[in-house]
Every structure is written in structure tokens, then in C-alpha cells.
């Protein structure tokens, strides 16, 4: 409990459990005996030295909740940041510049790994948003996910991939019922199938938030090869989503990372089945202009410009294409 945790350092003098006071000794050493300080490789030792104290301060921190970067408000963070970067008025030229990033990798990232392995539900939109927000900010502010990953970062990304993989392989279930049950919109079978389908679509969106954090080939395998083509396409092709079919295509396209299509002029191989389904849907509803435009936007998102032109010429949608800029839509 939190009360018990406060007693952990009760018998330790402040000089040895207060990060600011500990670092003040090293700052004094660095200032007075710079050569000796650097020869001792102190910047490599500090993350390990401070680890137990910082982990203690992080006990109440939860990366799956809102305001999850609030570890930056904890006393240890301010102390380490000041030690590494000075007090704002000085530009420190020394090896301790990376110490803050190294400390975060040794303390914050392993805590996140534990939450991924033991608590995180990839189906939860809120938890996934909070967790990926922390990761994107760590990447942006501390270069945590840049370049060759350290052992803690590698362990974290491997834990995320394992959790996502097990979620797709073991938790996703979209039943196959005889068509007579699915055509009856009020049947319990139809209700359960729809519920499972939309849960899987939500998971697809949650997984898309890991763009720039996990390798592309891993995300494409999990999102496209497995989730989309193995599960979602079966339901889409069953023609039993009724009025929700167009909306489902939009939601799926919106879930895919924009970076996959930046600078691309052709559709990804793993999206060919999805593309074919969207085109077939356009042919089936060719007179419903607003719905057709929505599907043309889907085709534009996944870079199927040849399909868009063929549809435009066949059903005279050229004006809609140019007014919505569907052939030169560039991703941000």
C-alpha cells in the first residue's frame, strides 16, 4: 500500500535517498574535478545508482491513465533534469546530457513494460491512447524509441508485440453463422456477431496508434494479414452489415496509419481484398451519391487511384472526385 511504501526509506538519511542531494555531490565533483569525474564514467553509473529511489517515487504512477506524463512533476525528474541540462541559463558541455534519457529508459520504461504484460488491455481505447501517448512523447522529448534500442526499450516493444499478437490470436472471435440468422437483424446471433465485429474494428484502431513505435512489418502483419484479412473481411464480404457497411469501410480505413500511404501511388498488396470489396460495394450502391463519395474517400486513403478513375468514368462522378480532391490527397 501507499502508506507502507512511504516507510521504505524511513531509516535512511536524506543525503542518501534524496535524488537532488545525491546529485548535488556529483555536481560538486563535476565542477571541481572535471577530469577525474569523467574518467570515473559517472554518467554510466548514475541511472543504476538512482534506480531504486526513482522506482519508489514511481509506485503510484500509472501509464494507462490520463495525464500519464505526470512523472515529470515528481521530485526526481526535476533534480535529474537540472543536473543534466543546468538551470536554464547555462549550456553544459558534458557527458551527462544523456543521463536523463538513460534514467528514463532504466526506470520509466521497465515500469511501462510491467503494465503492458500484467494490466494493459489492447481492446481498451482509453488505455491504448494513454500508453501510446506516453510512448510518442518519450520518443519526441527524449529520443527513447530512436535508433538502436536499449535493452529496456527492446523488452518493452517485444512485450507490446506479444500482447497485441495474443490479443489478435486468442481474444478476437467473430462467429460464422448461417445466413438466415444474420439476415434477421433482431436475431441474437446477428447481435453477437455485430458486437464482435465492431470490437475487432476498435482493436484495429487501437493498434494503428503504435505507428512509428513498432516496426512497420509487424504492424502490417497484425493489422492487415491477421485482423483485417482473417477476421474483418469475412464479415464485410458476407453482405450482412446492412446500412453499416459503408461506415465499417470508413472506420477500417481511418484505423490504418497514414504513414503507410505517404508518397505511395498504389495500393498495398495486403489491402487488395479490402479494395475489391469497396469497389464491389460502389457498384451495388452506385446511385447513392453521398455513400459512393464516402467509399471513394476510402479508396483515396488507401491510394487506389485507378479504381477511383474507373468508377468516376462509369458512373459520372468526375465532379465529386475533383471537388473532394480524391486523386491528389496527400497525407500529413
Largest sheet: number of strands, sense, barrel closure: none
Order of helices and strands: HHHHHHHHHHHHHHHH
Please tally the helical runs, counting DSSP H or I stretches of 4 or more residues: 16
Distance between the termini: 46 Å
Radius of gyration: 26 Å
Number of strands: 0
- SS class: mainly alpha
**Uncertain stretches:** none
Mean pLDDT: 89
Helix content: 55-70%
Beta content: under 5%
* Apparent shape: elongated
Topology:
Elements: H1 2-5, H2 19-32, H3 34-39, H4 42-57, H5 75-85, H6 99-118, H7 125-142, H8 151-171, H9 179-182, H10 188-208, H11 216-237, H12 245-255, H13 272-284, H14 289-301, H15 305-315, H16 318-323
Helix pairs in contact: 2-5, 4-6, 6-8, 8-11, 10-11, 10-12, 12-14, 13-14
Quickly describe the structure.
The protein is mainly α.
Structure description:
- Keywords: Nucleus.
- It holds the Pfam family GCFC.
- This protein has helices at residues 2-5, 19-32, 34-39, 42-57, 75-85, 99-118, 125-142, 151-171, 179-182, 188-208, 216-237, 245-255, 272-284, 289-301, 305-315, 318-323.
- With 332 residues, it is an all-alpha fold.
- It is elongated and about 80 Å long.
Amino acid at each position: 500500500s501507499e502508506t507502507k511504501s512511504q516507510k521504505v526509506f524511513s531509516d535512511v538519511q536524506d543525503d542518501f535517498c534524496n535524488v537532488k542531494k545525491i546529485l548535488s555531490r556529483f555536481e560538486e565533483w563535476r565542477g571541481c574535478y572535471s577530469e577525474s569525474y569523467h574518467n570515473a564514467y559517472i554518467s554510466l553509473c548514475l541511472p543504476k545508482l538512482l534506480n531504486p529511489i526513482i522506482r519508489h517515487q514511481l509506485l503510484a504512477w500509472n501509464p494507462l491513465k490520463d495525464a500519464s506524463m505526470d512523472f515529470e512533476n515528481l521530485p526526481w525528474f526535476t533534480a535529474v533534469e537540472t543536473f543534466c541540462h543546468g538551470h536554464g541559463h547555462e549550456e553544459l558541455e558534458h557527458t551527462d546530457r544523456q543521463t536523463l534519457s538513460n534514467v528514463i529508459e532504466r526506470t520509466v520504461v521497465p515500469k511501462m513494460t510491467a503494465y503492458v504484460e500484467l494490466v494493459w488491455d489492447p481492446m481498451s481505447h482509453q488505455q491504448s491512447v494513454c500508453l501510446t501517448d506516453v510512448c510518442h512523447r518519450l520518443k519526441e522529448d527524449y529520443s527513447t524509441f530512436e535508433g538502436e534500442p536499449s535493452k529496456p526499450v527492446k523488452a518493452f516493444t517485444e512485450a507490446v508485440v506479444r500482447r497485441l499478437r495474443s490479443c489478435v490470436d486468442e481474444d478476437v472471435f467473430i462467429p460464422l453463422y448461417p445466413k438466415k440468422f444474420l439476415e434477421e437483424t433482431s436475431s441474437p446471433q446477428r447481435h453477437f456477431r455485430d458486437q464482435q465485429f465492431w470490437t475487432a474494428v476498435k482493436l484495429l484502431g487501437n493498434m494503428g496508434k503504435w505507428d512509428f513505435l513498432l516496426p512497420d512489418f509487424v504492424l502490417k502483419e497484425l493489422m492487415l494479414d491477421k485482423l483485417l484479412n482473417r477476421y474483418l473481411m469475412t464479415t464485410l464480404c458476407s453482405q450482412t452489415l446492412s446500412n453499416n457497411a459503408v461506415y465499417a469501410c470508413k472506420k477500417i480505413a481511418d484505423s490504418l496509419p497514414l504513414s503507410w500511404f505517404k508518397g505511395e501511388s498504389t495500393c498495398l498488396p495486403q489491402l487488395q481484398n479490402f479494395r475489391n470489396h469497396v469497389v464491389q460495394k460502389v457498384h451495388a450502391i452506385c446511385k447513392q451519391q453521398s455513400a459512393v463519395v464516402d467509399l471513394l474517400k476510402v479508396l483515396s486513403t488507401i491510394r487506389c487511384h485507378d479504381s477511383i478513375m474507373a468508377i468516376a468514368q462509369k458512373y459520372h462522378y468526375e465532379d465529386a472526385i475533383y471537388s473532394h480532391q480524391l486523386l491528389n490527397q496527400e497525407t500529413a
